[in-house]
Every structure is written in C-alpha cells, then in structure tokens.
C-alpha cells in the first residue's frame, strides 16, 4: 500500500480516470494532464458526475480474475465501470425489497407436476397475485418436469412474497426471481 495514501483515503476528480487502472496513484495522468496531489484534491465540483477515487485492498488473484471478466464483457468497460456496476446492482437489490419499491422482473421455476397437488397449489397462489403477474409461459420439459416463467410487476415486497411462496413449495426443484427497479434511482 502507498504510504502517502492510507487505507480509506478518498480523492475527488471531475469526469476523468487514469489511463492505467492497475497501479494508479493520486498523481497519475488524468485526461492527458499530469496533476499534483493538491490539484487532484482540489478538483471537487458540485456536479453529480464527479468521480471519487478510493482504494480497495483485494487478493491479487481475485483482481486478476475480475480484470479478465471485465475484459470479456467486450463493451469497453474498465475496472472502474465494472465496480460501479456492482455497486449499483447491490443498491438496486437492497432497494427492491422495500415496501414502496416498484419492480419488474421474471420468476422462473422448474417443478415436477406429478408431486402431490403441486399444480393446484401453484394455480391457487398465482390467482392470489393476479395484480403482480403480468404473463406466464409454461413449457413441458419431459414427462414429469415443467418450466414456468412468470413476468411480474408491482411492489417489491409483494413480488418477493409471491416468489417465496411459489419457490417454497414441495416439488419445485429450482427457481429464481430476477428483478429490476423501475424508478429513477438507477440513474446513478
């Protein structure tokens, strides 16, 4: 760790990032202009597009694997953008469970329709959530197993409640709820 920048140190920069993200220091080249630590620290603006630099200590093999994954994305994403994406995803995931959050998403289930009265239970629960279920698709995978995909929309708490009830039924082998928030809070 750089002795000049203690753990937890943050610096602010306006819409610029170092060209080399591997071992960047406070005085690296920002947008083609070298800067001193004083200049970098003074580059604080009121704009919401300001960037804050902070340090994170991770094992080298984790960083290498993360950089390879970021490169595979092929969208020109750099390490900073990948970390911003992870931060946004964590914030959205947390926001989705709040009672007032409006969410959209899909609930995917694979189940054995021969298990007891599972089909009746699935139908009964789904009929209790008609306001949240926009559409369903049912696919017969084989003689026993079915894939069901529900398009869902509504309050996060209700959508997660629906998912918990359906995925908790005996005979549901696998299931996953994937949601996104519909609000402007994603524009970070």
CATH fold category name of the largest domain: Alpha-Beta Plaits
Mean pLDDT: 77
Q: What is the element string, with H for helices and E for strands?
A: EHEHHEHEEHE
Question: Strand order, biggest sheet?
Answer: 4-5-3-6
How far the N terminus sits from the C terminus, by CA atoms, comes to 29 Å
Biggest beta sheet attributes:
4 strands, antiparallel
Structural class: alpha+beta
- Gyration radius, in Å: 23 Å
Q: How large is the count of helical segments?
A: 5
- Counting structural domains, the number is 3
Number of strands: 6
CATH superfamily of the largest domain: ACT-like. Chain A, domain 2
Low-confidence stretches: 12-48
Tell me which CATH architecture of the largest domain applies here. Answer: 2-Layer Sandwich
**What proportion of the residues is helical, as a percent range?**
25-40%
Strand content: 25-35%
Indicate the overall shape.
elongated
Highest CATH level, the class of the largest domain: Alpha Beta
GO molecular function: DNA binding; DNA-binding transcription factor activity; nickel cation binding
Cofactor: Ni(2+)
Binding site for Ni(2+): 127, 138, 140, 146
Keywords: DNA-binding, Metal-binding, Nickel, Transcription, Transcription regulation
